[in-house]
Amino acid sequence: MPVPFTLIENTWIPMADGRRLAARIWLPEGEGPFPAILEYLPYRKRDGTPPRDETTHTVFAGEGYACIRVDISGSGDSEGLFDDEYSEQELSDGEAVLTWIAAQPWSSGKVGMIGISWGGFNGLQLAYRRPPELQAVVSVASTADRYADDIHYMGGCLLSDNANWGSQMFAYMTRPLDPELRPDWRDAWLERIEKLPFMSADWLRHPSRDDFWKHGSVCEDWSAITAPVLAITGWADAYLNTPAMLAANLTAPTKALMGPWEHRYAHISKLDPADFHGEVLRWFDQWLKGEESGAEALPDYRVYMQEHFGPTKENKPRKGRWVAEQNWPSPNVSERVVYLSTGSLTDTAGSGECRISNPATVGEAGGYFCPGMRFDNELAGDQAGDDVLSTCFDTAPLEDELQILGRPRVRIAFTVDRPVAQIVGRLCDVAPDGSSQRISYRPFNLTHLNGHDAPEPLVPGQRYEVEFPLNECAHALRPGHVLRLALSTSYWPIVWPAPEAAEIMLDLKDCALILPERKVSEEIPPEAPGPAQPYPTLGGRQLRAPSGTSETKALPDGTLVLDTFDDYGEAVNPHNGMQVGSHVSMHYAIHPDDPATATFKSDWRFTFARGDWQVAIDTENRMTCDAQNFYLWRRIHAYEGGASEPVLVKEWSETVPRGCL
């Protein structure tokens, strides 16, 4: 029977320099003290995350945990100014928050951290700093390497989501403070807008793996983390590589769980929702309450092994089965090398040359970089159309099931005709009907042959060799299916293209695909998560229902355009009466013959109201390029009281040299 709890809408947590951070607390009633669960985000506890918080912290509080949702400095109603994601200010404040929680009379002194994406990141990053109060972490859809596996770069290539995410954060961080909690809301709001950093430009100025990205990357010293970590992600998410990396490298107790989910907590996934609460409570019961919950005995790596399900961009359940590896790395996984021959993957080395050159529009079926952020039509679709435009290597139809678990690698020897070029590898499961389902993919910037910290222009015509990984995957190919490696020089709009169309010539005698092949004589019980259990929802009055659209079209000159619109609706929060609405439109365009025509646009609108108080913000963002530079521009119109004239208009523009991007 769940214990009753009290919801404290706002508490101020003091920082040493006089700033206060705003916290929302779910406090169990009865005799304490209680272990605590902290979620630490910039996404606004008052009017941003309450719908999700209602589904998690109310459940955890009912199981005897004090739950605390804190807005980082300069976000929500917290004082101070925002400087950047995972900054020293954010992490040192996080340590102070942990100390404050542990010192409260209702606290047992043991604190766990939970979070998805941003909150998953800083949970690991704070564990890396070893504050004594932090006793366990549940990290969902996070990264151990901020350069290699985040939303900015992948394989040394620029992701279009560097601009997209920068535009979203621009909109998020210019939202107003709540007058009920901050009488100084107006001055603080306008100051935030005036002093907000141009994040997408700042991130773009760090195109290699320098100290900027090493800060907050826990892979710099795996031994630093001593708190037990449960790492969770889904195969439809963008953050695929961290759970297996943590399970393989951390010395603290660590377990990895990979489901079919998108970028959401598993219980609210649109792709086969699962019992997220049970997984979290088992972990925290073990490490915060000291109960023998079975968490320590779980297999190191529990995985949803996907199969071909008829690829679609729609949010439909994925076909597959749960498997588990008691130890990770696993003795059940070994490397299988297949070789690239003309049009085929074979057991013997190929010969001759093979050309890779394609239109800049390859990637149309790639889906949205981070599914779970839009409403639908965001997953990778049938790859057959992109395959036709790529250079493909196929196995013969399989006679037996082939299980792949881990990170495939591509090894190539090549020459190239441009000083800056990229290659993209996609591993696909091709069914007898010809439909092609993406298993894994990853780009690689060929100027990063000597490491992501030392890019150098290529010498056209010079022979090079490189081996690069694809992303973590778990996939079983059925008999009769074909394994395909598709190689291309672009993957738009997920990857921002190189400045010029390039031609790569492979020397096939030294080209191979290395597969992590899984073979087991007897499966161990997978300890699969059960179905999602009932959970509370926020409710409230809905004023406008959410909706979304997506349209791809070709202009008369051949330019390929993708336009999306996501209306997140408008609703009234039943706890504080805040009425919030938002929507975003995004535009991607590129000409197939000219990668320098790549264009991204994003426009956000937020509205807020309670009684006579009304605020609206409109933000606009643009990114274009030529062969030498990136051009970024943004603008905000801020409105108050329903007026048609803005109280503030501000515009920024930046030019950032491309270098080796």
UniProtKB/TrEMBL annotation:
Residues 523-555 are annotated as: Disordered. It holds the Pfam family PepX_C. InterPro entries: AB_hydrolase_fold, CocE/Ser_esterase, Galactose-bd-like_sf, Xaa-Pro-like_dom, Xaa-Pro_dipept_C, Xaa-Pro_dipeptidyl-ppase/CocE. Residues 281-535 form the Xaa-Pro dipeptidyl-peptidase C-terminal domain. One of its GO terms (molecular function) is dipeptidyl-peptidase activity. Keywords: Hydrolase. NCBIfam families: CocE_NonD. This is Glutaryl 7-ACA acylase. It comes from Phaeobacter gallaeciensis.
